[in-house]
Design a protein that fits this description.
This protein is an alpha/beta fold and 237 residues long. It has eight helices and eleven strands. A six-stranded mixed beta sheet has the order 2-1-3-4-6-7. Strands 9-10-11 form a three-stranded antiparallel beta sheet. Strand 1, helix 2 and strand 2 form a beta-alpha-beta unit. It is elongated.
Length: 237
Amino acid sequence: MSEHLLMDKNYIVAASRPWYAGITERLSKKHPGSFFLATTPDELLQLDLAALSPQYIFVPHWSWIIPESVWKNYDTVIFHMTDLPFGRGGSPLQNLIDQGVKNTMISALKCEKALDAGAIYLKAPLSLEGTAEEIFSRSVPIIEEMILQICTLSPKPVEQIGEPVYFQRRKPENSNLIAVNSLEKAYDYIRMLDAPGYPPAFIEHGAFRIEFSQATLNDNQLTANVTVTLKDEWHDL
């Protein structure tokens, strides 16, 4: 396809997390065409989709249901942090780490009504070392490269193969360390929730709520930053 034809194409990136700041500018420097960013459902719906007629809508990290009016009319590509069909469902990063998984795949899939059941455009590997914020930040250039491949090659998505394994979305109370019985598990709980917008790992003692971040594990000793608040001042994120 000629660059002149590519220049006429529009693309939308729907991403709600801070580590995606600047993604459309970076993509625009590497691929002809126009990239538009939406960080909230209102911003997505405020874009004149009919006028833009986007070639693709890319959804790397989104906390809301994508309207049927969007994915039925425009090729909408979701990026899910599991090797689908393993790990359909919510909180993929936290569920993977909780299961002891060290490396995963980012699956780029076609959005459809059934959750995470769409055909796969492509996959790319991702290490699960470090804090949640570090992992999410590490995934950004990988997802950018996947977006560029899809924009350039327009691959035909292939139906998922295998028996699906489902994850349940984790709730803030699942961050309680009371059920954890090893330093390794405590370390994983702290790091897998250590990112802006996620309820941190915690324990409660008397009137206090004790939250943990920036954990390290060395020589059978776990160290972490600690924040202490009164329980009745805490609320769900």
